[in-house]
Amino acid sequence: MDADVIVVGAGIAGLRCATRLLQLGRDVIVLEQDDAVGGRVRTDVVDGFRCDRGFQVLNPAYPAMKRWVDLDALDLAPFCAGVLVRRSEGLVVVADPRREPRLLGATLRSGYVRPLELAALGRWAARVLADPAAVKAQPDRALADSFDAAGVTGRVRAEVLDPFLAGVLVDSHGRTSANFTKLLVRSFVLGRPGVPRLGMGALPEQLAAPLGGRVRLGARVERVSPAGGGVELGVGGTRLTARAAVVATEPVAAASLSGIRQPEMRGLVTWWFEAPEAPHPLALIAVDGRRGRPSGAGRSPGPVWNAALLTAATPSYAPPGRHLVAATTLLDRPDGEAGEGQVRSHVGEIYGVDPSGWRVVTRHRIDAALPALAPGAPLRDAVAVRDGLFVCGDHRDTPSLQGALVSGHRAAEAVHTHLG
Length: 420
Known about the structure:
The chain is 32% helix and 26% strand. It is of the alpha/beta class and 420 residues long. It starts with a strand and ends with a helix. The chain has helices at residues 12-23, 63-68, 71-74, 104-108, 115-130, 132-137, 143-150, 155-169, 178-190, 202-208, 251-258, 310-313, 340-351, 401-419; strands at 3-8, 28-32, 43-46, 49-52, 76-78, 82-87, 90-95, 194-196, 215-217, 221-227, 230-235, 238-247, 265-275, 285-288, 304-309, 323-330, 359-371, 384-386, 389-391. Strands 1, 2, 9, 10, 11, 12, 18 and 19 form an eight-stranded mixed sheet that branches. The chain has a four-stranded antiparallel sheet with strand order 15-16-13-17, with helices on both faces. A three-stranded mixed sheet has the order 7-6-14, with helices on both faces. It folds into two domains: 3-42 and 201-263 and 378-419, FAD/NAD(P)-binding domain; 75-197 and 265-371, Polyamine Oxidase, Chain A, domain 2. The longest helix is centred in the C-terminal third of the chain and has 19 residues, at 401-419.
C-alpha cells in the first residue's frame, strides 16, 4: 500500500479531510490535478491585481470557520453590513443599523424602511435566529414560495433581497431551499463577511500547510476501483494503492470517479475591471433594484446581479492607488453569458459612473460554481459510497464553505472508523 488513505482533490473539503486524517494518525496522500490547491477557491494575480475565481466572500460566523481556520492569520478585510441599491432616482444605501450606525441616516432615507414589509421579513427569519436546529427539521419549500407565504412581497424583497440572494445562491429564480437560505441569512446577520487581504486563495493555502509534501500537484486521477481489500487509483499511467480513498474533487468529476449521482450545478461569470477612480467610497455589495417583480421577473436592466469594489474593503487587491471592481452575471438566464460591452455598461449604470475608461483585468466563467439545493433535499448526504470509497464536498452538505469544511471532516471521521 502506498498510503492508508488517498484523498483525490485539494479543494476545501479535501484539505480538511486530509488534515483531520493526519491528526488521527493516518498516513495520507493528497492528489490534485491542478497546479495549486484550492479547487474552486483560487486567486489569480494578474498585473498585480488579486482576482478570485468568481466573486467570493468568507463568513467568519460559520461554525466550521471558527473551529478549524485561523481567521486572524487570514487578516480578513470585512465588507460593510449592507448593500448599495440602484434605483431609477439614484443609488441608495441599506445597512444594518446595529453594525453600521454611521449609515443609519442614509438607510432611513433609502425608502426601504417600510414597517409592514420589515415585519413580514422578521416573521420569515425569526425562527432561524432563535432556533436554527428547528429550521432544519421543518417542512421546506422554494425560497420564492416561502417569501410569498410570509407576506414578503414588497419593494424590500423585489429590489433588495431578491437580487442580493440571487448572487449569493447563484439562483435568479428563487428555487433554492428556503430552509438552507434562512440558515445562510442567519450567518450574514451574525457575521461580517470579508476577504483575506491576500485573496481567497489564502484559505486553502492555510489548510494545506500542515500537510506539507503529502500534497502532490499535477496528479490527474483517471479511475478509482476496488483492489485487494483496498482501492487502486489510476494516476497518469501509473497506479497507487491505499486502504481507502476519498474523492474530494469538484462535484461533476466526483460523480464520474465515485459513481454517485451527479448533482445539479449552477454557474456564473465574473468580470474584473480596473477603474481609474473608485466608483463609490463604501465597501458594499451593489445590486440593481430596477428589476421589477419579485425573483427577478419582469424587466431586467442588464446582466449584472452584483458588483463590488474590492479595493474599498482592502487596497491589497490592487497595486497602490488603483481600483478593482468585480461584476457577476448568472448563467441561469439568457443574458448570463453577456459580452464585455453589456457588462461594462450595466455595472456603470449600477454605480452611476461612466465606465468607458475601465480596463478588463480578467474574466472567469465558472459553469459549476455552486451545487443547487432544491427544497426538501437533505442538508447532509452520506459520505460513504462503498467499502473503502468515500466522497466529500459541498454537494454532500450545504453549498458553502461551511458545508465543504464539515463534509471533509465527516469523511475523515468515517474513513477512520472504517479502517478501525
